[in-house]
Design goal:
It is built from ten helices and nine strands. It has about 230 residues and is α/β, with parallel strands linked by helices. The chain has a four-stranded parallel beta sheet. The chain has a three-stranded parallel beta sheet with strand order 2-1-5, covered by helices on one side.
Length: about 230
Amino acid sequence: MSKRYKLGLVTLGQSPRVDVEPSLRSILGDDIQVCQRGALDGLSAQEIKSLAPVEGEAGIETCMHGENSIVNGVYVAKKYLLPRLVDAAEFLEKQCDYFFLLCSGQFPDLKKAVPGIIEPIVIIRSVVESIAANGHLCIVGPQSDMSAAPAQWAPYAAEVSTSAASPYDGNDVLALAAEGAKNSGADFILMDDMGFTESQRKLVHEVSGITTLGALSITARVLQELI
């Protein structure tokens, strides 16, 4: 009888991530056991809102649970997340065969504290560079990330542009971002947020007609090799 692997998912926001788990399972199958832990677990909506960055502080968009299991975007200061992320990662490390960060950014202090955590950004950069080193890459992601995106991805593509949309904005906004990517003349699109689902990746591909890479789907396919 084959082993049933336990896969840990560390999210910056609240777990469970009912929005992204179906996309993971569409690639990894239903034989895995997904264990989730979030940095904002156990906090009320008001407590989460109090973690918003003040002017000059680094922030990041993540998610909180709304009514009827709807996942809503929320902006929090990075400094408040780290200790809670470390706690979540250490918990999953004891429970799972493999565990990864549901974020396409980097948290060096998290990796230092919990070396076993898989950081998707390392995988994503390698994939992007292998196909877009001589091409035009359009980054689709939250508006808050777009000003820094060209410099972040310049080492991995010959040309970088952006088109803003959040996983939580809805399909109409996402379709507009896909049109923006198409109009930019991009050769490739990277949906640079782990909150984008496989169905959203397919939507962007259908609207733009451009090869579309998803941070989540790239990571899931590498995880598939591990399990």
